[in-house]
Amino acid sequence: MAPTSTMFLLLLVMGVIPVKSQDHWEDTRTGKIPACLPETCRKGQDICECFLTIEHRLTMMYEKEKSLVVSKGGRLYRFNSTENNPIANSDDLPFILTLDGNTSRVVIAINRLFPGPQITAYEDQTLIIHVRNLMHTDSTTVHWHGMQQLGTPYSDGVAMVSQCPLGHGQEFTYKFKAKPHGTSFYHAHIGDQRTMGLYGALIVYPKQELPSATDEEFVAVIQDWNHDDDASTLYQRMLFGVFNQNQNPKTRYVTTNSVDGGMYSRYKFHSGIVNGKGRYYLTPSMHNQAPLTEFEVDANKNYTFRVISAATLYPFRVYVEGHPTLTVVASDGFALKPITVESFVINPGERYDFILLTNQSPDDYLLVAETLEVESEIARRGEYHVAEAIIHYREKKPRNPNPSKPVRNRCTATNKCVIFNCPYLLPTSANESCLTYNDARTNDFNSAPEDVSKVDQEYFFNFAFPGEHGFTPGSVNGHQFVPPIAPLYSQPEDLTTVCDSNCADDKICSCTYTQTIENGKVYQFTLTNVGRGKGWSHPVHLHGHSFYVMKMGFGQYDSHGILTNSTPDISCSRGSKEYCNSPIWANETWNGGNVPNLVLNDTAQKDTIIVPTHGYVVIRFKADNPGAWFFHCHIDLHNTNGMGMVIVESPKLYPAKPKNFPICGDFRSNSQPLTSSGSTLKDDWKAFVSTVWAAIAFLVIRNIHV
Ligand SMILES: [Cu+2]
Fold first, then answer.
1. Less Cβ around it within 10 Å: N or C end of the chain?
2. 127 vs 14, higher pLDDT
3. Does residue 189 lie within any of the structural domains?
4. Where's the Plastocyanin-like domain (predicted)?
5. Considering the domain boundaries, does residue 554 fall inside one?
6. How far away, in angstroms, is 218 Cα from ligand 1 center?
7. 456: CA distance to ligand 1 center in Å?
8. 480 CA to centre of ligand 1 in angstroms
9. What is the pLDDT of residues 137-191, one digit of tens each?
10. 608: CA distance to ligand 1 center in Å?
11. Rounded to an integer, what distance in angstroms lies between the CA atom of residue 519 and that of residue 85?
12. Are residues 372 and 514 in the same domain?
């Protein structure tokens, strides 16, 4: 055997060269072996290799028996079972997808699971993730939310920004370093597919030994779940309104509001789910007894909960029933100085780690994520907006799989409940008080806020819905994002939708909005939510970077805590239509990073931040990661409506894309009519001319020889 072959076999046996076979795909898809190969991903190893198969599946279906299932008392039963025997086969249960237990409907599953399998790696490991798309009708990509992708921008997974989408039956291998450590997740980055289940947790442990803070940890991925709409229907309803069709006379749903008057949802809320399970509240007090996710704990221990919001639309306030406090210790993978609060707000795209001390009397409690709208408004609609999971103390027997509606922790004027990460300020008369991200401080050994103490360049980006009646799309600085016809990173020369003179202070334009930044410079971005298109708060996510949160500014409130005016710190004086497409500081002495009351010491880092309506957030980061980075609102509906842009970072220093990186595009340039053989008439004419020349040459040569 040749030495090279021996070496290859040796590397194969050592697991250095990944092996892919059809068996492998099926074994990971059906759960016979874990999604991530058991011989990889361990501490001290260099590689973590995983296989993800994406396909459509039905909820409330016991596939092995081809039987519909129904829920009762927090358990699942065969639909036609007359006996009182719940389905309890532990091997099959994880593959019976329940969601909110309402009806059997199609969702997107990964390796037959909803949400997809958790990927757990160690910092600096090379993640090699093979993705296969078996959805019959949809193309897809997968984004690794929170991963910096240093040197691998082509693995960021944003359709038409970093790569071509995968069609039916196609595979793609993502390869990147697991960095930074902390709580992250993966999700689809095309259309609204995250809404339908294409997501899963991605947990990266630090390479260094850290003293274990808690006894055990749990991951809770939260999502709002509408059991009628799919991703495309949601989008259409956003454009044209949502109507209550079951009522006579039919009515239009009105927008719900938070306590400050901020707008939240025009949709009917059906259910909230945690790790793919939730209950449908038919009335504010009666639910359908669908099973919930259960976390088992022992009394008087500390547990870490890693909470991830894969939500489509709603922010959630997270608390633990019967436990007056919890301690927030990290966000978006970055450690925070511990903040002990009653609850915290998590927005779509954000992650929070908290520690819970199980110091209450042994019982079944609920982990509750409640949306932020005014409770009485929700009740008036006949709805109850929560996602729930059971925290079961093992000492309590028997366990109750069907606990009743959660009881809120008691908040009074003298014993206020403190909420962290509020997107608003509350009046002092309220029974709750707010901490905002201004109050967070880093506790992360990787944070170095002194790196961004001096600003080289600043930009303003207004995330809003400005425009005239009938055309108020999601936009950034009045630019409604149009995805390019080919990936901006790998095929920049194919960009046909450049922003031009149709964009201006008093115009709303549709194009591929980009901002180029230069390597090595420190950038200050002021993200605003002001002007005519304000009203909704936006969780804005930057790919390829985390950023320091320097300051959060809020609007102006009356004595009841209702928003009356936007922040006086931002001026919308450019343009006459109040679109605020070019916001600036109201006080020009604030230019160049000279903003008062910045958090300059122990500044907290994250990658997704809420930009409060009427307000702003100042963030800073250093341009040290060449690539094309999507920068967008993480509310899927706002994003797909155009509230996004691409930060083109140091294009001359782009890392080379891998050999044979897929290319794609549209057919606009191919205006020649096709002939039956698939070649164009132009090609045929060329071929004809070549043949004639060949014939002449043949005759000439023959004549010479004669
Ligand atoms: Cu938004």
1. C
2. 127
3. yes
4. 98-208, 217-395, 504-651
5. yes
6. 29
7. 28
8. 13
9. 999 999 999 999 999 999 999 999 999 999 999 999 999 999 999 999 999 999 8
10. 12
11. 64
12. no
The identity of residue 453, as a single letter, is S
What is the DSSP code string of 302-324?
EEEEEEEE--SS--EEEEETTBS
Site of tokens 């004419």: 685
**Residue 410 placed within a domain:** no
Rg of the chain over Cα atoms, rounded to whole angstroms, equals: 27
Both 477 and 564 in one domain: the answer is yes
Residues near 155 by beta carbon (within 8 Å), at least 6 away in sequence = 144, 149, 162, 174, 175, 176
Residue 407's pLDDT is what?
93
Lowest mean pLDDT among 211-215, 574-578, 608-612: 211-215
Q: How far is the CA of 469 from the centre of ligand 1 (A)?
A: 19
Peptide bond into 324 cis (omega under 30): no
Kindly give the distance from the C-alpha atom of residue 579 to the centroid of ligand 1, in angstroms, as a whole number. Answer: 16
Distance between Cα 528 and ligand 1 center (Å): 12
Residue 429 lies in a domain: no
Say how many Å lie between the CA of residue 516 and the centre of ligand 1: 23
Residue 181 and residue 271 in one domain: no
Is residue 629 packed enough to be buried (19+ CB in 10 Å), middle (13-18) or exposed (0-12)?
Answer: buried
Our CA dihedral for 51, 55, 61, 66, rounded to 10 degrees, sits at: -90
Looking at the structure, tell me whether residues 277 and 137 fall in a common domain: no
Is pTM beyond 0.85? Reply is yes
pLDDT per residue over 588-622, tens digit each? 999 999 999 999 999 999 999 999 999 999 999 99
- Summarize the confidence of residues 579-590 as an average pLDDT: 98
- Both 392 and 504 in one domain: the answer is no
Residues 363 and 227 in one domain: yes
The residue with greater pLDDT, 571 or 229, is 571
